[in-house]
Design brief:
Elements: E1 11-12, E2 15-17, H1 21-40, H2 65-71, H3 73-76, E3 80-83, E4 88-90, E5 97-104, E6 106-107, E7 110-115, E8 119-120, H4 130-143, H5 154-159, H6 165-171, H7 177-182, H8 187-196, E9 200-207, E10 216-217, E11 220-229, H9 235-246, E12 253-257, E13 264-265, H10 271-281, E14 288-294, H11 300-305, E15 309-312, H12 322-327, E16 335-337, H13 338-356
Parallel strand pairs: 3-15, 5-14
Antiparallel strand pairs: 1-2, 2-16, 4-5, 5-13, 6-11, 7-11, 7-12, 8-10, 9-11
Length: 357
């Protein structure tokens, strides 16, 4: 559990503690402060500068960014968009870099309905219990290991890691990377790196379409599966992954699509990318920026579908470890340091002035 009140917003030893501090209220608040500063300081952009804050991203954006895109697209339309969650430092000491997210994996949530035969809980022998079968489905999905596949920015991402050349070669070999990550000492970093080069499936919700009772053998169970796809995988490939994972159990379930957005990418040969590089260079002279694919989804995909160039950006303190940072998403003891808040706030200001000044 949490070491402190997750809704306390406490400032302790230079860090703000609380649910959402990392994902993604650090960005929401620093952008708001930057936007206010630009407005009251008399900055007049060449074009429109929009601060767009909206809920529901965690649940798929249907009542947030996607709703606005469907109903009031002109109110939020933009050529360039900055959103979560880049800005982490990486690389060897002689060639450090800051990562910026230029794309994200697809989100292909599925509801898997497992069927059985109802009966009395006092007579379980030879019963057809949907919950028991669902447990087997969950275990097979959890055990599933699809082959590694690398997206177009993976080579650059690996090249900028602070690891030796032999390890880099392993990270670029689809036949070796899985065994390497199985024994990787940092769980959070291993989970992130594995997700960067695999379509993943995580069974996270168990439900039923009716009230269940302790003395009734259930006839149906719903499993909500969080599927995140690498570029190139979409509807047919997700179905193939489920068939491969479930084997003979696949024919015993019904699969319903909840979300079905493919992976999306934005190019880096843009004026905004150049502005980001210059803004990073102000507090960190000579620091390069590197593109990477984020393993979660953001509202950036909504904007990319509208034709925008969208990056996940920000600027964190060099003391923030990417591995530790990744474990704070939806985790215990979520917190962000004040130095990173200051760096991000100035970063937004510098990017806006460079691009629109």
């Amino acid at each position: 559990g949490w070491s402190r009140d997750p809704f306390g917003g406490e400032l302790v030893d230079g860090e703000v503690w609380g649910r959402g501090a990392v994902d993604m209220l650090n960005l929401t608040s620093s952008m708001a402060v930057a936007f206010r500063h630009l407005a009251i300081s008399g900055f007049r952009p060449k074009g429109d500068l929009i601060y767009f804050g909206v809920a529901d991203e965690e649940s798929g954006s249907a009542y947030g960014a996607q709703w606005m895109a469907d109903n009031y697209p002109d109110a939020i339309r933009a050529d360039y968009v900055l959103t979560e969650n880049g800005g982490l430092h990486d690389g060897p000491s002689h060639s450090p870099s800051v990562s910026m997210n230029v794309g994200e994996k697809g989100v292909a949530w599925r509801r898997v309905r497992v069927h059985g035969t109802p009966g009395h809980g006092s007579t379980p022998f030879r019963s057809d219990n949907a919950l028991v079968r669902a447990a087997a489905v969950v275990q097979r999905i959890a055990d599933y290991r699809p082959p590694a596949r690398f997206h177009e920015h993976w080579g650059t991402q690996v090249a900028n890691m602070d690891i030796d050349d032999e390890t880099k070669a392993i990270m670029l070999d689809p036949n070796k990377i899985d065994d390497y990550l199985e024994s990787f000492p940092h769980r959070g970093a291993a989970a992130h790196l594995w997700s960067c080069c695999h379509t993943t499936m995580s069974p996270n919700v168990v439900a039923a379409d009716h009230t269940m009772k302790t003395n009734v053998i259930p006839d149906s169970i719903d499993l909500n599966i969080d599927v995140r796809t690498i570029p190139g995988d979409h509807t047919d490939e997700v179905d193939a992954h489920l068939q491969a994972a479930l084997g003979d159990l696949y024919d015993a379930v019904d699969v319903e699509i909840i979300m079905n957005d493919p992976a999306s990418l934005s190019p880096t040969d843009t004026p905004l990318w150049d502005s980001i590089q210059r803004a990073v260079g102000k507090p960190f002279p000579g620091m390069s920026i590197t593109p990477q694919l984020v393993v979660g989804f953001t509202d950036a995909r909504v904007y990319r579908n509208m034709g925008s160039i969208a990056y996940g950006a920000g600027l964190f303190s060099p003391s923030v470890s990417p591995g530790d940072f990744s474990t704070r998403f939806h985790g215990n003891d979520e917190r962000v340091d004040v130095e990173s808040l200051e760096l991000s706030t100035n970063f937004w200001i510098d990017v806006a002035k460079d691009l629109l000044g």
